[in-house]
Amino acid sequence: MLTDMDQLPSIKLGDFTLEFELGNPSVEIQEVAKKELRETPDIVKQGVTELRELLKAEPDLKCPLENDAWLVRFLRPCKYYPDSALKLVRNYYSFKQKHSNVYESLKPSNEGNIFAHNILTVLPNRDQHGRRILIIELGKKWKHNEVTLDEVFKGCVLYLEAAMLEPTSQIAGAIVIFDMDGLSLQQTMQFTPPFAKRIVDWLQDAVPLRIKNIHIVNQPYIFNMVFALFKPFLREKLKSRIIFHGKDRKSLHKYISPKSLPECYGGNLQIPRVTGKQWLELLMMCDKEFDAINSYGYPKK
Fold it and tell me: Which intervals hold domain CRAL-TRIO (predicted)?
């Protein structure tokens, strides 16, 4: 992390404790890092050293060069190739500079509305591969007159920035479930080509996290109108990771174990679902970390 904390943020939900997993990954996840990301002590050391030197040559970029964990955060999704990690750092901060109107003072305490509407949540558990599971409900639960798509985007950024703090998430990555149940024609009209391009640019080039799959569930026929806006901007790698399931739960379970999913997706997960307000309570304990995240980057244009 970029800030010091006396204790790790956590909240008690009955018998379950919701917390950020900032400790060392399990032996199984460490093995994934070794096999998929080339991660060994020597390669980590070399990668950190080389990326730090490359970033020193970026005169306009302010970043925490002496923070090894921050450097590893960008090296992991690039399999420890320093040149690729440098490009990712540039893209990450260039995107934030380009969309400064969205990123200005972006932290949990300023975004209570999106969490209050409870259309974004991260499941308290991981999937069978150790990945975080983000669920976005943009159908009947989304009151588009009260929550803008910009607010939805900000909420997603906050969740993924938090996931990027977790070593296990840096290695295993994350998956996203878009639940479009009840999507209306009025709601489809909220989507625009510029918004679609921003989302695709962000996912393809500017997120230092391995987004392994995007699952579309419960989508009505008019969702095709929405997807048509995104399609022109998708490169093959991301396009191949978008999977449409409709109401076919067996199709979804080919990718995500029912043990990892709540009942509404045909699963048998026993842990209660975490509400947006509960996640906000936890995220707000990291407000200072988000202040630190926001203090770095390129100068405003």
Answer: 108-273
| Domain coverage including residue 219 | 108-283
Distance CA 65, CA 70 (A): 8
**pLDDT at residue 272, as a whole number:** 83
| Burial of 146: CB neighbours in 10 Å, binned 0-12, 13-18, 19+ | exposed
Q: What is the pLDDT of residue 2?
A: 86
Query: Does any domain span residue 297?
Result: no
Would you give the end-to-end CA distance of the chain in angstroms? 27
pLDDT bucket at 6, cuts 50 / 70 / 90:
low
Q: What is the CATH number of the domain that holds 89?
A: 1.10.8.20
Cα torsion angle, 219, 159, 108, 76, sign: negative
